[in-house]
Amino acid sequence: MTASEIAASFFEYACIAVAAVIALYVLLLALLTTSIFQSHVVYLHAIQMTWFKDLNVPETFGFRRNQVTPFCIKTPDNEELYAWHILPPELYRKNEASLIAEPDGFVPDIKSRLAFKLLKDDPEARLVLHIHGAGGTVASGYRVPNYRALSAGNPNKIHVLTFDYRGFGKSTGSPSENGLTVDALAVVDWAMNVAGIPPSRILIFAQSMGTAVSIAISKHLALQESPVIFAGTVLVAPFVDVATLVSTYRIAGTIPIMGPIATIPFLFKYLQRFIRDKWLSKDSIAQYIRANEFNEKKYRLAIIHAEDDYDIPWHHSQLLFWHAVNASIPTGITYEELEEKRVDTMADLGAAGSVMEWKTNHGVIREEILKTGLHDVIMGYPVVSMAVMRFFEAADPSFTS
């Protein structure tokens, strides 16, 4: 075979390979317009990531016997949400003998257990409602270290309640934007009306996809005739909305799914029509802030992100922070004006990142951008423990470590 024939053959195979890649990409785009495929891509609920371990045996994930109580919370539309109530370590140590004496595993009636009584009967107890991201279960990845970080500020008093959305793990049903919102509201209802914890002693912690859920329920509760406002809300690695997220999302931080289409505005806008679950966090957070300012309710919001987050780029947090700040000012503020104010108000922490805090007569909006932390590792960092304690102490100065 001559050199020209080899070159021609190579060119032919290269063309076939390029055509195959383009065909697969077009097929992917077509599948993304279907609700079922889209649901799996957005929520990743079919991916368990618990390495064949039994969620009803939390000890296999590093907990002590009966430090975690697995149970279910029922939603108004009759789905069952699998949940964990996690005792803070020092409180567990003080009651270890009694807790060990109880049966372990899944509990049909959590109200019969000592762990529940330690939460409900303690007027000083605090509860963090943990709303996790897409994929996995309550025990997946960096979520277990995250629970420890949430309680670290006061290991005597800070309990954690985490749950799997419908369609995730052992929970029944299939995920959707409305469904996940109903789920989170059912968990809030359980915390306030079953466990008897008032909103002033509850903090919402959310990460990634969970931030959209937490913003949605916070807005919903703030707009009620009798608004419900928590001690604080901590958002880690949030995004402004699904459309913006898919335009920037990269598989493994390198391969853009919608990047090529996002460069063609009219085509990208057309494909947005097929997005079922939009999760408009930028709009919801603005409504949440405006409602609290109008009702003169004290609110506390922290947005935390790492610059090396390759799943959700950190500029999402900058945009969300601006939407929140803009909503807190009757006359508004442009993104550029807010950036100018950073020069005087932002605290540069060097290798630890930066902090900017916006205060009004009624609320605090805090943005913390870390240099490192990736998308999930950051959840176990001290910045999380400090954010939790900062808001609990702000809500009640007598609550200290």
Automatic annotation (TrEMBL):
Keyword Transmembrane helix tagged: yes
TM stretches of this protein: 6-32
Gene Ontology process terms (BP): antibiotic biosynthetic process; monocarboxylic acid biosynthetic process
InterPro entries, per database record: AB_hydrolase_1, AB_hydrolase_fold
Domain AB hydrolase-1: from-to ranges: 128-289
Pfam families linked to this entry: Abhydrolase_6 (PF12697)
Coiled coil feature spans: none
Record keywords: Membrane, Transmembrane, Transmembrane helix
SUPFAM superfamilies reported in the protein's UniProt record: alpha/beta-Hydrolases
Gene3D superfamilies assigned to the protein according to its UniProt record, in alphabetical order: alpha/beta hydrolase
Protein name: AB hydrolase-1 domain-containing protein
